[in-house]
Specification:
The chain has three helices and three strands. By secondary structure, the chain is of the alpha+beta class. The protein folds into two domains: about 40-65, no CATH class; about 70-144, no CATH class. The chain has a three-stranded antiparallel sheet, with no helix packed on it. The longest helix is centred in the last third of the chain and has 16 residues, at about 110-125. It holds the Pfam family A_deamin. GO terms for molecular function: double-stranded RNA adenosine deaminase activity; double-stranded RNA binding; tRNA-specific adenosine deaminase activity. InterPro entries: A_deamin.
């Protein structure tokens, strides 16, 4: 997908298309897939340790707690940052709307405009339509 989208221009100055440096095919020859591992590992700069997930549940191996990459965890981090950036008495957007993940995404004007342009670019390039998830998956609140 990343290679097919190379000719699509960036959606806005706030967003950019990063070219992946890994995950490219080493050969164009077809191969028989083996059995996938039952675990997945993720990490990023600033994380204290690797996170090992059970691929059948998406939860951490051992503890069974949700991944730090799940929508709720990422939204909770975003909401904490949102509150830290706010000055006393300042209102950043529709406070009631941004209490839910869906509301926060809908009130993010730059994000919505970039997403609309991206979806249109996919269609114009003949790459098909953007699949949407069921709306109920985005109607949840953070843990803050």
């Amino acid at each position: 997908m990343a290679r097919r989208m190379g000719h699509i221009s960036p959606t806005s100055s706030s967003y950019r298309h990063n070219r992946l440096l890994l995950g490219c095919l080493s050969s164009s020859e077809g191969r028989q897939p083996g059995k996938s591992p039952r675990f997945s590992v993720n990490w990023s700069a600033g994380d204290g340790e690797l996170e090992v997930l059970d691929t059948s549940t998406g939860r951490r191996k051992g503890s069974g707690t949700p991944s730090r990459l799940c929508k709720r965890s990422l939204f909770t981090r975003w909401e904490r940052l949102h509150h830290q950036l706010r000055r006393p008495g300042q209102v950043l957007g529709d406070e009631k709307a941004i209490k839910t993940y869906c509301g926060a995404k809908m009130t993010a004007g730059a994000y919505q405009r970039a997403k609309q342009k991206f979806v249109l670019s996919l269609q114009e390039a003949g790459l098909g339509i953007w699949n949407r998830k069921p709306p109920e998956q985005e109607h949840f609140q953070s843990n803050v």
